[in-house]
Write a structure and sequence with these properties.
131 residues, single chain
């Protein structure tokens, strides 16, 4: 037997062994980026809902503003408006989104991520309180 002779296939074998790991790592980084983007969308929707609530203090207007501002599937966005909508009342808006980790391989390893943002504001005096 002869050792140390031809090593032409060594690089191919090493690539074949490392490629699944590199692809999994790349898909994981992609999934983290998607979750970060969706977290920013939830944060933005909460701020938009609070701004809407200051000028138009109705639960339906606040919820609609939050849902339309996310760009996420409206069925998965949950908006909770709590507190008093009366003048000088304190209102809290909570926007929650369950972000599925549906990237190949990652979705089986990591469960869905729940993204939630909460913001409180005061209703300006002189505004009409809504339903």
């Amino acid at each position: 037997m002869r050792y140390g002779g031809r090593e032409e296939g060594q690089a191919t074998v090493e690539l074949a062994l490392l490629l699944p790991l590199l692809i999994t790592l790349l898909v994981g980084v992609l999934q983290v980026g998607i979750v970060a983007r969706n977290a920013l969308a939830v944060s933005h929707a909460t701020r938009v809902a609070a701004r809407t609530g200051v000028s138009e203090p109705t639960r339906s207007a606040i919820s609609a503003a939050a849902r339309s501002a996310t760009g996420l599937p409206p069925g998965r966005v949950r908006v909770v408006v709590s507190g008093s909508l009366a003048p000088r009342g304190r209102v809290t808006v909570t926007v929650t989104y369950v972000d599925p980790t549906d990237a190949p391989l990652i979705g089986r390893l990591v469960p869905s991520v729940t993204l939630s943002q909460q913001l409180s504001f005061s209703v300006e005096p002189g505004e009409e309180a809504g339903p």
